[in-house]
Write a structure and sequence with these properties.
- It is a single chain.
- Helices cover 41% and strands 23% of the residues.
- The chain has 9 helices and 15 strands.
- The strands form 5 sheets. A 6-stranded mixed sheet has the order 4-3-5-14-6-15.
- β3 (92-98), α5 and β4 form a beta-alpha-beta unit.
- α1 crosses α4 (60-85) and α2 (19-26) packs across α3.
- The N and C termini lie far apart (52 Å).
C-alpha cells in the first residue's frame, strides 16, 4: 500500500461523501478506492468511515485522521511543487465562492490582476447567495455574509456591509413614498429569502437606538440578489440592496432611497476557509488579495469595526 495514495483516497471520500464520486475525481476504479481505504484502516487498526446506503461519513477517529492527513499532504504537495519549479511562489487550483453581486461587480472585473500576479494559480469562481458547505463541496475559500455560527471554519472579518431601502420612480409614482416606517405595511416589497433560514427577510430599520421591523407583503420572492435588483428597477416593489450595488442607480435616478432618516442593519462580511486543512500558500494569497480588493472597492459602503 502506498500510504500517500491511500491518504488522498481517504480525503477525497470524506470531501465528496461517496466512494463513487471520489473514484471519479481520482480517475480510479471504485474498487481500488475501497481497497485503499480498507488497507489504511487495517494499517491503523481502527475504522475511519461509516458507510450507509446514502452517504459515507467519517468516524470520530476518521475525522481526526482527516485533519492531520490534509495538513501532511498539503505540506508534501507544496514542497514537491517548490522543488520541481525551483520557486516557492503560490501554485495550484483554487475553488472560491462569493455572493452573486460581489462576484459580478467586484471579483470578476478584478480577477485578471490576481492571475497576473500569481501566474501559477488557476481559479474557479463560484457565485451563489446560498451558504456553501466548504468541505463537502471542495471550496478553498468563501466570502460569507452574516453572523457566523460556531463551526469548524477559520474566519477573517472584513467589515460590515451597509444596506439601503429603495424603490424605482415608477413604483413611487403609483404607490407613493412611505413617510414613516409604519407606512411600510401598506406597500409591497421585493421579497428576498435568506439562505441561512429559508425564510423571507423582514424589512428592518434602525435610528438612534430605535428599531422598526415589518413583514412587508411581497408578490415577488427570490433567492437571487441579482433578480431582486432587476425586479426593484422594474418597479415591482420596495427593495433592500447592498449600498454598493444601489449607489450607482440612486445617483442616476433609477432608484430612490426610501426613509433616508432610517438605516438598514449592516451585514458582517468574513472570508472563511476550512480549518481542517492547512492554509496553502495559494489560499493565503487569495485571501490577502480579496481582503484588499474589498476594502478598496467597497470604500464608504463598508464599515470596519
Amino acid at each position: 500500500m502506498d500510504r500517500f495514495d491511500a491518504m488522498r483516497a481517504f480525503i477525497q471520500v470524506v470531501d465528496s461523501g461517496s466512494y463513487t464520486r471520489a473514484a471519479q475525481q481520482l480517475n480510479l476504479h471504485k474498487a481500488t478506492v475501497s481497497q485503499q481505504i480498507q488497507q489504511l484502516e487495517d494499517k491503523l487498526g481502527t475504522r475511519l468511515l461509516t458507510r450507509t446506503t446514502r452517504s459515507v461519513t467519517p468516524t470520530a477517529e476518521g475525522l481526526a485522521y482527516y485533519q492531520h492527513a490534509c495538513t501532511i499532504l498539503e505540506q508534501v504537495d507544496e514542497v514537491e511543487a517548490m522543488l520541481r519549479k525551483g520557486t516557492s511562489a503560490p501554485a495550484g487550483h483554487l475553488r472560491v465562492n462569493v455572493p452573486v453581486a460581489m462576484g459580478r461587480l467586484l471579483f470578476a472585473p478584478e480577477i485578471r490582476g490576481f492571475l497576473e500576479r500569481h501566474p501559477r494559480i488557476t481559479i474557479e469562481l463560484g457565485c451563489s447567495d446560498r451558504t456553501v458547505d466548504l468541505v463537502q463541496e471542495g471550496v478553498d475559500c468563501a466570502l460569507r455574509g452574516g453572523v457566523l455560527p460556531d463551526s469548524q471554519l477559520s474566519a477573517r472579518h472584513v467589515g460590515e456591509l451597509r444596506f439601503v431601502l429603495c424603490a424605482a420612480p415608477q413604483y413611487i409614482d403609483v404607490h407613493g413614498l412611505p413617510a414613516t416606517p409604519d407606512d411600510l405595511i401598506d406597500h409591497q416589497q421585493i421579497g428576498y429569502v435568506l439562505a441561512s433560514t429559508g425564510k423571507l427577510r423582514p424589512v428592518r430599520l434602525e435610528r438612534e437606538g430605535q428599531v422598526a421591523e415589518y413583514d412587508v407583503p411581497a408578490r415577488f420572492v427570490t433567492t437571487d440578489s441579482a433578480a431582486a435588483l432587476s425586479a426593484g428597477l422594474d418597479g415591482l416593489g420596495l427593495v433592500v440592496l447592498a449600498e454598493f450595488v444601489a449607489s450607482h442607480y440612486m445617483t442616476s435616478g433609477a432608484l430612490v432611497q426610501v426613509l433616508p432618516g432610517w438605516q438598514c442593519p449592516s451585514l458582517p462580511l468574513h472570508l472563511v476557509t476550512p480549518t481542517a486543512r492547512k492554509r496553502a500558500a495559494r489560499i493565503q494569497a487569495f485571501m490577502d488579495w480579496a481582503h484588499a480588493l474589498l476594502l478598496r472597492r467597497l470604500g464608504p459602503h463598508l464599515e470596519t469595526r
